Amino acid sequence: MDRVPPEIILHIFEFLDGPAPSQARLRDQPSDDMLDAQPEFLPSLKTVSRVCRVWRPLVMPSLFRHILWRPKISSLSAFTLNPIPLLQFLEDNRLDRAVTTFTLIVNFVDKEADTRRVTPGIRSVDLEWLWDQLFSVIDPLRFTIIAPPTTLAAFMSRMLFLEDAWSFSIPYHILSLARTKRSSPRDESPSGNLEARLANLQVSTPEQGSLGLSRSTQAGPSTSSSLRYRRPPACPLFTVRPWTSLLLNEGSSTRVYKTYDFFLRRPPSMLGALLGCEEHPNDTPLIPDTVVDFNYIAIFPLSSHFEILLQHLPRIDRLFVQLAPRPGNRILEDEEEMKHIELADLWMERNTAYSSLMRELTFAADPTGHPRNWASLRVFESGDTADHEAWEMAVQFVQRSEAEGWKVEREGVFVKSDGGDDLGTEDVDGHVPVTAPGSSGGQILSVQ
């Protein structure tokens, strides 16, 4: 084996590699252990890296392509989240350029803020420092945060409506930003190595405090003139790279259906903040112009909540929607979860949401009478094609509407033919699962 060229050895090792678990599971129900990978076969790349000194440097970049970071956090206001040891390790071993996906899992909940039903705050200077440190070292194609809704809101410097949060009891949300390729040359990152930036370390203290955020984010004009003209805090995460795809997974809303007035409830969601359709500081869209692909996943969301996306759709080329459990999700068979829930209510809300979506999709065929961003949409994909009856109804709806341009490309996908080049999903969606040669599984490095 010593005489085998490194290129051939690397090609052999590719058959032991695979995509990150997150690529296949980001559309599953969010949890803090959803990405805990179990290798489906041996030997794994980690085993190969221990064979000899010659093989180890060849395998190391593949071992560290997918980083899963679980920092231990004791406070958001004092900001105890420190990526320096991880980043130092990557730089010391020349692995910083190897990182393709980076997933941050935070299971910390500010119990004091939770009790008071307010969104916890993180100082803007601390967030800017965090994103600067991370993206000055790594240059990932996909960056994902899995965190409780309140913690995710704090990372985005936005408010969260919490009055009805108890009735939803949603433990985790997923926010993921992706792109299909790296920019060339790599000029987005600040210059300089990690040592040169350590002097800029910003540490906040409880005395310095954090941004206090109101519990309510009801849509409509602000009652305070000072809030009306004050710019919301910046969130550099959305512009630190030219992301082309955004994924928001809000988990299951089934528990709200246990309440008799579920249709009046409002979930703890960052959807309105992303779209910029709520009151300050959620009145400025977070989605940058570079994003042309939007993926929205939720399990039986209220149709009134889904309407927010329909009425404030950003200017995108592709929309992916999934509103029911994926095959393999046994939530509907869980007796405890379904206790005191009328199944008919779940499907009624799902059907209402899809009916409204198809209405917007077909009305947009006439851009003069429907001049909103729906007219620029070129691809719509449903993640609920396991329900064949519902898909057939959607197809019939489009056919009866006589909407010009829309056609069925394949099951679950509508494409609008406007005379231009066809838009491929792989061209814009950095969340599409990609299978490596000869592989069906994936390796991921978990860092505590």
Observed structural traits:
alpha/beta
Query: What is the arithmetic mean of pLDDT?
Result: 82
Helix content: 25-40%
How large is the radius of gyration? 23 Å
β-strand percent reads 5-15%
What is the number of E strands?
11
Taken from the alpha-carbon principal axes, the silhouette is: globular
- Summing up helix and strand content along with how strands pair, one would put the structural category as alpha/beta
**Poorly predicted sequence stretches spanning 5 or more consecutive residues:** 196-225, 434-442
The run of helices and strands is: HHHHEHEHHEHHEHHEHEHEHEHEEHE
Q: What is the terminal separation in angstroms?
A: 36 Å
Provide the spatial order of strands within the biggest beta sheet: 9-10-8-7-6-5-4-3-2-1-11
Largest sheet data: 11 strands, mixed
Q: Give the number of helices.
A: 16
Q: What does the oligomeric state look like here?
A: single chain
